[in-house]
Amino acid sequence: MISSPSSVAVHRGADATLSIVVPLYNEAENVGELLRRLREVVTGLSVPPAGWELICVDDGSRDGTLAILLAAAALDPHLRVISLSRNFGHQIAATAGLDAAHGDAVVLMDGDLQDPPELIDAFLAKFREGYDVVYATRRRRAGESRFKLLTAALFYRTIRRLTNVSIPVDTGDFRLMSKRVVSALRNSRERHRFIRGLVSWVGYKQTGIEYDRAERHSGRSKYPLSKMLRFAIDGITAFSEIPLRIATWFGFLVSAVAFVVAVVEIGIRIFTGYNLPGYTSTIFAILFLGGVQLITIGILGEYVGRVYDEIKGRPLYLVAESVGSGLDADSSPS
Ligand code: UDP
Ligand code: MG
User: Any idea where this protein resides (predicted)?
Assistant: First the structure.
């Protein structure tokens, strides 16, 4: 049975344990450096954790990522490796890692070193002050295309206007979460996951730290435009019903326009006797309304498709192999 978040005790003092969760997909060139930097950061923390674990989730990589992780795990008891049965995508891989985390404080970060591990000390300082979520807001982003910067900025501002959950702008998934927040995420099994939104939805005391996002250490982004778009739609549909109302607004708008046009046309006919030729306006009306209807059906489809996906009730992911026990298993919440 999954414990309810309110019953989860979070240690914040010297007895606090730390989990670091990293989803990885084809990051063979980055793993070595990542492990090295993380170990350096954890051993140099201003308040050493009572215990710590690093959970690397291999999201069905096709390069040597898994082999490197397994070799490293054989030498390091802090390292746990969870290998998924195939590529499930970043948000699901992160979820698999969070599901396995035992720490009082759980840090989620990317494996390409765009999220500097050195920030973890500052995260933990806020955690000790009593915050349940400490997220990292990007002040600057190095090595990203103008297009990505623009679309990302636009996206965060759009979703902010569309939802009543307060999702911080320019903030990715790089963050620290307390055990009870992670436990709340474990109880939220929706499959089109938008983790940063879910975390905002959970509530408790949340705060942000600004940082400059680094360039990828090596390799290319695993988020091409199509995946980014999917992700954006996942975020919006998961946290807003406003797009569904667009049809209603369009309906009122088109009816109002139709009414005005009718009054004007009839007026012209009565007072001047002139019969307006209607070819252009007819074609325009047909195409415009056809477009509006198709768009609104498409929006409806996005929601219906997601309902269908949820109702199938498949597991979010399958684990092929799990190595290492990390923190003491009896501190496990489930
Ligand atoms: N990732 C993953 N599964 C995927 C795609 C990405 O686990 O299907 C991981 C990837 O290895 C990285 C993190 O998610 O650690 C963020 O991905 P990426 O750096 O490609 O995204 P970007 O920073 O470009 O938004
Ligand atoms: Mg990246």
Answer: Cell membrane
